[in-house]
Every structure is written in C-alpha cells, then in structure tokens.
Design goal:
alpha/beta; Nucleotidyltransferase, domain 5; 2 domains; 5-stranded mixed β-sheet; 11 helices; globular
C-alpha cells in the first residue's frame, strides 16, 4: 500500500515480450516496462519459442527492478502479484510464473494467476477509467481472435473464436509471402494505406448467420493462390493492393460479427483488445458500423494493445477483489481456454 492505494505488480511473459508493470487500484499505471524481442525474431520470420524463453530468463529480474524503480516503490509496498499463466508458449510462461511465485513467497505477497486474454480486455480499464462491465469485447491478436461477452469484471463468456488461423497469424503469413516481412500486421496496415482495398475480390467467410466463429485459413490460401497465378502469368503484383484487399476481407468479417454480437446481446459498447486492435482500418470500420447502431467503441492506446504487464496487473486486481487467490502450485497452462 502506498499513499492509500493498492499496488499490484503485473508480470507478462506469454510470448516474446518480457513485461512488468505497477498499477494502483487496478486503473492507474505507475510503471509499464516492456522488453521486446522483435528484432531478435525478425530474422527467423516469427517467434522461436526456445530463444524467447532464454531471453525472458535473462531479462526478467532487470525488468522487474526497472518497473519498481519507475513506479518509485519497493516490494514492501506491493500488495499483490499478478502473472500470466496461459495461454502462450510454455517455456516463456514458466519464467514469469516462477518469478511471480518467488516474489510472492519471499515478500509474503498474495498471488493471482491471470488468463492472458482476460488481461487484454482489462487493458481498457487502464485507458478508460469510466469503463465498467457489461460490454462486448473483440479480442484480436497474433494467436487469438475471439468475441467475448463481459457481464462483469471477472466473467468472460466466449461467444466465438477462430477455427484455424487467428487474424494476426493470417496477416503475418501473407506479409511474409508478399515480401513485407515480420511482424506482418503493422506492415500490412502501412502498405494497405497506399493500396486499393477493392482491387482484388477476396472472399469473406462468415460461417453462417448468427455464428460468431472465424475462419481465415481459406482466405490465406486464396491470397496465396492469387499470388501464384499472377506470378505464373508474368503479371506484376501490386503489393499495396494485395495488402489492402486482404486486410479488408479480414476486417469486414471481424467488424460485422462484433457488431452482430453486440446487437444480439443488447450491449451498447464494444471494447477492442489485442495487438490487431491497433490496425487503423479495423478501428475506422468498427467505429463506422457500430456507430450506425448507436454502439460506442472503446480501444486502448497501441502500447496497451501489445502484451504488457499493466493489463495483467489490472485483471489480477479485480480477481483479487472478488476473492481469487493462487497457490504456489500455480503452473503454466499453454492452451488455457477463456
């Protein structure tokens, strides 16, 4: 406790960011340190799990110390430790979980394990201090694409998810093939601004009326077939047009399903979460289509869309207030469900 505020230390190591944050009362960010490995994994065209785990091991103590220093606090003033325990890369998760359990035990601080996806949703509490459930959430990242009904702080009801590739994963794969490189999402977004989103008629996959699941593997295959056909015919490929058209096919489905879910469940607010929530076209289109139905759209700043410790601290705080506690048998669950 510091100045009458409940302080939570949040630790996030589910993929390739070693991230630690101190958050006051579940809403106020006092520090948010993120050590990214993007430059390391770029040469491989994606995250290499073993390398990611080793880097977390090398970085975790320094990042924790930096977060405490930036927040001008010490472990003696920390009231709670929250940590991501899944889903994610098992080796990466284990580093964060082990660090959190060690701090909890050594400093006698309560411990709460956090579902990474719940953390992404909680990022909105840090950005929009007036936000309270209920609301509909669209969670879109490199590994996940979900529509989630959120009736209260500690309940997340998954209505639909991807049956194959996540949206961010599809962006990465197509970006690599058309020569944009890794990470694909931001590069596709940038290229799309220079292209014609109607240049190529990529199919939108809805999986039937009232269905909130997603499928992007067919769209990815369609894009690859288009590229192969154009190359074999000797025609020049406009990378910007491919990026814009491919992006539009993904974004339209994401937006249509999120708005349909909000209407069905009579939610007046949609919150966005996850790395792909930073996509400029997704933000533009969802505001347009949701706004036509009087539905408000909220989204975090880009730094809170990426993996970060602050979102984990916020989710842990509300779970703790509801009476949740984790024991020292807390383990990494790489395939953890919503």
């Amino acid at each position: 406790m510091k100045n009458g505020k409940h302080l939570t230390l949040g630790i996030e190591t589910s993929c390739d960011e070693t991230a630690v944050s101190v958050v006051a009362d579940g809403r106020e960010i006092l520090s948010n340190i993120i050590s990214s490995q993007i430059s390391i994994h770029t040469e491989f065209g994606g995250v290499v799990p073993e390398i990611a785990s080793r880097r977390h091991l090398e970085n975790i103590n320094d990042v924790i110390e930096a977060a405490l220093r930036e927040a001008d606090t010490t472990l003696d003033e920390i009231d709670l430790v929250g940590v991501t325990y899944g889903p994610g890369l098992v080796g990466a998760l284990l580093i964060g979980v082990a660090a959190a359990k060690a701090i909890s035990y050594a400093a006698d601080i309560p411990l709460v394990g956090v579902n990474h996806m719940h953390g992404h949703i909680a990022a909105n509490y840090l950005e929009h201090h007036e936000l309270e459930p209920p609301f509909m959430a669209l969670v879109v990242s490199g590994g996940h694409t979900n529509i989630v009904n959120v009736p209260d702080y500690n309940r997340c009801e998954k209505l639909g998810g991807t049956r194959d590739d996540a949206a961010g994963e599809a962006f990465d794969k197509v970006a690599r093939v058309i020569g944009l490189g890794y990470p694909g999402g931001p590069k596709v977004d940038k290229a799309a601004k220079l292209g014609n989103r109607n240049a190529i008629d990529f199919k939108r996959v809805y999986l039937g009326q009232g269905n909130f699941d997603f499928s992007f593997s067919g769209l990815k295959t369609q894009a690859l077939n288009y590229l192969n056909t154009e190359k074999q015919a000797g025609r020049e490929i406009n990378v910007n047009d491919v990026a814009a058209s491919f992006q539009e096919a993904i974004v339209e489905v994401l937006v249509d399903k999120a708005v349909d879910a909000a209407l069905k469940y009579k939610q007046k607010r949609i919150v966005m979460a996850g790395g792909v929530a930073s996509n400029s076209r997704l933000r533009e289109l969802i505001e347009e289509r949701a706004g036509a139905h009087g539905i408000e759209v909220l989204r975090p700043s880009p730094i809170l869309c990426t993996d970060n410790g602050a979102m984990i601290a916020s989710a842990a705080y509300y779970a703790y207030k509801a009476g949740e506690r984790s024991g020292y048998d807390l383990d990494a669950v790489p395939a953890l469900e919503f």
